[in-house]
Fold this protein.
Amino acid sequence: AQSVTQLDSQVPVFEEAPVELRCNYSSSVSVYLFWYVQYPNQGLQLLLKYLSGSTLVKGINGFEAEFNKSQTSFHLRKPSVHISDTAEYFCAVLQGAQKLVFGQGTRLTINP
Amino acid sequence: GAVVSQHPSWVICKSGTSVKIECRSLDFQATTMFWYRQFPKQSLMLMATSNEGSKATYEQGVEKDKFLINHASLTLSTLTVTSAHPEDSSFYICSARELTGSSYEQYFGPGTRLTVT
C-alpha cells in the first residue's frame, strides 16, 4: 500500500516570507500526487496535482510543487505567503484507480 | 467548477438516534462518491467508497451496519450513522469523482460536523 508522510505538523512563517511544506511518498509504481488546502470547518480544495509530464506543477493561489522521483518527494512551495494562506495543507497520493491516501497534514500559520 | 454540497453542515443528536447526511454533486454526475471522517487536528480517513447503483465498499475497521451508505443516483449519496454514540462525533466529509473525468480528481464537500450528546 502507498503512504504519504508530511514531515512537519506545524509551520509558522512571517507574512511575505517563502514557505516549503514537505511531503514524501512511498510507492514502487507510477504515482499521482495531490496537494489540498483546508480552511477551518471547511472541506478540501485542490491546490495542484501531478499526474505526468513536467515535474514542476503550478497551482492556485501562487503555490507550486515539484515532483522528485529519486527522492520520492512532492514538496509544496510559495515564494511569498499571505495571512490568508493560514490553513491546513494535505498531501495525498492516489492508490489504485481512485482511493486517495492522505498525509497527516501540516498546519501553516502566517504571522504578521 | 465542480461543486459538491453536504447537508446538514452541522447536526447535534442524542445518543442512540440515527442521523442522515446527504452529499450532492451539483453540476456534474459522479460515478463514485467517497466518505471520509476527520477527527480534530487529524487527517482524513476514508470510510467507504460508493458507486452509483451498487453496494459501498468499506475500509477495514469501518462498521458497515453502523455507517449505512446509499448511492441512489449519479448526484446523490447518503451516509446514515445508526444508533449514534458520542464516539461517533466527528467531521464527516464526502467527495465525488466526475463521470467523465480522467484527471482522477475528487471534488470535496464542505463537511458535516456531527456532535452526539
Observations:
- Chain B touches chain A at residues 4, 6, 32, 34, 41-44, 46, 49, 91, 93, 95, 97, 103-111, 113 (CB under 8 Å).
- The two ends of chain B are 37 Å apart (CA to CA).
- The mean pLDDT of chain B is 91.
